[in-house]
Sequence to fold (991 residues):
Amino acid sequence: MNERPSLSPGTNLVAPPTVSDLELSCRLPLLVLFISAAVWFFIGSLCALLVSIKFHAPAFLAEPAWLTYGRLRPAGFDAFLYGGCLQAGLGVGIWLLADLGRTLAPRLALTWGAAFWNFAVTIGFLGVLAGDSTGFVGLEMPSYSAVPLFVGYVLLGVFSVLLFHRRRDPVAFPSQWLLLAALFWFPWIYSTAELLLVAYPVRGVAQAVIDWWYSNNLSVVWLTLAGFAAVFYMVARHARRPLHSHYLALMVFWLMLLFVSWAGIPNSAPVPVWMPTASTIATVLLVIPIIALALNVHGTLAGNYAVLRGNAPLQFVLFGVAAFVAANLMRVCGTLADSGQELHFTWFTVATRQLHAYGFFAMVMFGAVYEILPRIMGLAFPWPRLVRLHFGLAAAGIVLLVVPLGIAGVVQDFQLLNPSVPFLDISRTSLAFLRVSTIGDLLLAASQFLFLGNVLALVAQFYRVRTKAAYLLVTADLFKPAGAKV
Amino acid sequence: MNPEPTQPQPAAPEPPRPTAERRPVPVWLFVLFFILLYWAMFYFDQRSAWGNQYVYAPYHSYAQLETFQAGAGGGNALGKQFFDNVCALCHNTDGSGKPGQAPPFIGSEWAEGPPARMIRIPLAGLTGPITVHGQEYNLTSMPAMGAAMTDEQLAAVLTYIRQSFGNKASEITPEQVKAVRAQVGSRTQPWTVPELQSVQ
Amino acid sequence: MKYGPLIFLAALLAMAGSWMGLVLVPQLQVGELVQTNTVPENATYPLARPGLASEGLQVYRANGCASCHTEQLGQTSTTCEVVLAAVGTNQSALLSALLKVKPELGEATAKTMLTELPQTVLVATNREDADAVAKDLGVGGAKARIRIVPQGPDLARGWGKRRTVAEDFLFDYPVMLGEVRIGPDLADVGTRRPDPNWHLRHLYAPQIEVKGSVMPPYRFLFETRRIDQAPSPDALSLPPQLAAKPGYEIVPRPAAKALVAYLASLRVDASLFVAPYSVATPAATNQPAASTNSAASASTNSPPK
Fold:
């Protein structure tokens, strides 16, 4: 049902342009998902900023128990990952499946799924701050938030798979099957992790192995699958050319699922040596998806890079591509250079993970949201300058966050390998670098605030225009010039 | 913040739906992939002990792990066991002695001194004043705690004392104990310090 | 081409692969572990953490201590030290054997070495070499022992004596291995810092124990209360600028005591089959008990060393 308010003669207000049924069907669930994701991204970045400041003033906000570093940092990260990244990823995925498949999205089911998901993340976030953290990295949200999260996911996931199933064109674009794999991947890893770690816990270090497996599959495999789906779509669309190679995307698909899912066990883990060895091999094989991504993106955009100019969504996406290459090359080199078993304990891994989750995935999601929201609302963003400012702040923030941490990590590695360097000196050296990365966190928090502002501004403008148009429609008779026909 | 014109702008026109070309994967990428798999095979063979659950880094294989077993001649478990059960009753498990009962072994010149003197003490006991680490002790006689022990056991205990509590001295061997036993004979009279000092 | 079922199968196959490899097999290998025995004493290991310590583990979990501290010790190699323990009867043969094994010693140094036993003669990287040297040195009743010494940057830093293995965490839920070393490793902190008062003061105000530390203060684990009739034995003794105002004392809450009990229970010092090492004999920890001896018929009998 298209809304088509009629214009009275003599007014110069433009009614919201019509959007197709498809876009309309996506509007409600995607608005919920994207606005929530923006809010959670902001909350996550605020927590990250506070936590970063604590390094320079340890007594800062140390007093109420729920603001101590050990609770705020995991809570913030989970908010960023589950509330921000996963919701944005699922939202972008729904759009991709609906748009590429030319099918209407089941609005109500998806909106309810989003509602359950947000409820779960909210109580999970508060639960971690309250001290109910499960203690498992990447899975800190307590068990009472796991059930609504899973219910929310089932709704979002099942109906997204239905979207794929009902597609018009039997030939699927690579984004569709990458997303499909991601949609099957999450419930498997999440339910395994929750069952074997929280519900019926396994004994001893088997918990740690499963936790590392889950964390890797979520942060590396899932984010890569969903992120690549968005990248391929955006690049092919904006270049107005077909994606360079369907088979390169297929290679990425198989490699991520078969091999990279084995990564994640660190070298010094208290487990038999075959596990870290397998993980090292899996991490090194990441080289192939990196090359495949670069080839595909470059091949599609070759000679046509001018299309980037002034095109904020595509700039976000290409930044994300560059960040993926950098982050995963860091990951590969970090694994190979870790014979002393100290590098993975340093800021270097933190830098790698931040670059991958934020620099790659979040930036690609921002680009996709900036692309999708105008399409489903029918209106462009009211302040394009702020969108460009968001890009600038975020790009600067990520560079200022990741580069000092990476260098700090390498320095810390050399120092940890040298037993005559007292630990306090190592800590002091890292602090110098952390000062710069705190500025990066500040810029990122500001950019998230802008993102939230931009999204809300668009929605506000939409409702303002619609309200005005509805008002005009209702009062059209009252303002008819005297004597004119009804 | 400089607001753009308040007129809402429609979204930019929609680009066409993307497709993907069926271009084959470059051969060199496949070659690289197989090189990596080859390296992975070597790496796994060299490092992983093929899934053995007992082998932790830095060991490469179960056989190698077995060679590093400390058991044969590693610690002095026998000496510790007898010390804890026999000597520690009076001298304390950390060798600090008990006031009114027994002098300490910490910093004891008797523990680090000539083996012949040290072996004699538990064989027949000690009576009379003794100076240990600058402090004089004149306590009830020490019984012959080592008389019932075998040569191996006594050697192990005395070695334990000589190499614990900060002491650093040579080991005492069962042969030395046997030799001293032969010299001492069946003496039951506790030693005094002047008697011990006449022994080298 | 029927994409959906094909993709589902592909995902299932891939999931099954990594699930089998990193969930099922680890569960069978390390998830089914039971208590093991130390070598060579054959003591049961590990013993379950005492009740207060397991409560402490939950405090550790709830406050996210694992965000900054790890509990994993790595080991990069193992060496075998050949330690000459007893001289035996034939000193000259031993001397020549010693010089053959380690020619760079020089006769003078070798002679002094023989008088200051036990002495580490050689550090070998594998057992065969070490055994060969020990055999060479075993002339005339001399005894050379082999000590297994794990090596690695963590161990050299004094954070532990051997690497951590699965058995060390057998009874813990959740296993808090940590990810980043913003603070020192805690796997063996119970051996390094056994004093609970140090930990309590460190938790209350880390900077008084470690100047320049970035660890936040955990004041909420303590309570300031009015002194009742006499100061509580638990009260913290703090420097004047941090001490409670007169009439008040700072006492640890049960959570703090539990956490400290947990930290004191963190030890990695048993030699196991999977992580063998020669347990060193205990060093001198206390001063000798001052013996207040009355009857001092002081015949100063200090025997020559």
